[in-house]
Design brief:
Blueprint lengths: L4 H13 L6 E3 L8 H6 L9 E15 L1 E15 L6 H17 L9 E3 L10 E11 L2 E16 L2
Parallel strand pairs: 1-2
Antiparallel strand pairs: 2-3, 3-6, 4-6, 5-6
């Protein structure tokens, strides 16, 4: 039996929520017609914009005696920019901590998948692809794109 996007996204969300200060986690890319409502989807308890969206970029399969499915997951993170508070340093550290969490992540007992780049096993599963500043709605924010590799073994 193959796993579904929702299974992987739920596990990623659980692991992200365990990272202190990770903010609001969504298992899909959020959309809203009203800009204030959209920004509100990413505000933490203190009113600061801090959150992540989980999505999947692609799914590739290959067969080497057994079938492997490679899920290219993407984490888009946002943090409200506060120069006086050195928020850029805090955000960089948060990205490092998230990558640390997935470097040592073990699959759930009995799982047919793991956080691993099956196409390039020398790479760790989490890679910071991009960190920049951009407008998030009407607010200047730090943004990160972290790629996360999940390899699934499919029994035929």
């Amino acid at each position: 039996m193959t796993i579904r996007y929702s299974n992987i996204a739920a596990d990623i969300k659980t692991r992200l929520e365990a990272v202190p200060g990770s903010g609001i986690i969504h298992i899909y890319e959020r959309q809203a017609v009203d800009l204030a409502k959209f920004i509100g989807l990413f505000k933490d308890g203190s009113g600061r914009i801090l959150g992540w969206e989980i999505t999947r970029k692609s799914v590739m399969e290959h067969q080497q005696g057994i079938v492997f499915r490679h899920h290219a997951m993407m984490l888009h993170g946002y943090m409200g920019l506060q120069d006086a508070a050195a928020s850029g340093v805090l955000f960089q550290d948060l990205c490092d901590t998230i990558c640390d969490a997935f470097r040592t992540a073990e699959p759930l007992s009995g799982s047919s998948w793991m956080y691993r780049n099956g196409d390039d096993p020398d790479k760790t599963p989490a890679q910071i692809e991009l960190i920049d500043d951009r407008m998030f709605g009407s607010v200047l924010c730090h943004h990160a794109l972290i790629s996360l590799s999940v390899t699934e073994r499919i029994a035929i």
